[in-house]
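seq:
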Amino acid sequence: MDLFDRVIELGRYGYSCGQILAKLMLEATGEENPALVRALGGLDGGVGYSKGCCGCMTGGACLISCFTGKGEDFEYENPAHKPALGEFTQWFQDEITADYGGINCEDIIGTDPAKRVEYCPQIMAASFEKCMEILEEKGLL
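struct:
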């Protein structure tokens, strides 16, 4: 099954954009973490259904941070943390704004639910691919 089909399948199971990115990352690494998947559900609809920043941008940042961020008291974030996040968020701002008119859910889908079905899976797949590309380039996968 290709990435786009997997995104569609996870959407049919009721997962939101941030959750789908988490599921894809966990599948790619052979891990399970239902708490992480539940937590990223808070990004849906532009962070808590506020119509704000797309959950793929925030979810992608969370995905990268899973590999690069600080996670324990005596641990430091990876030196690639901020550069990787910056690369992803700049890419997202440039690409998604050019293709969909902005980075907020409201900009991307407005009030048309058909756009959510048409646009969101494409954005999820592209975001996941970009995150994985960045992580691979930085030697974090």
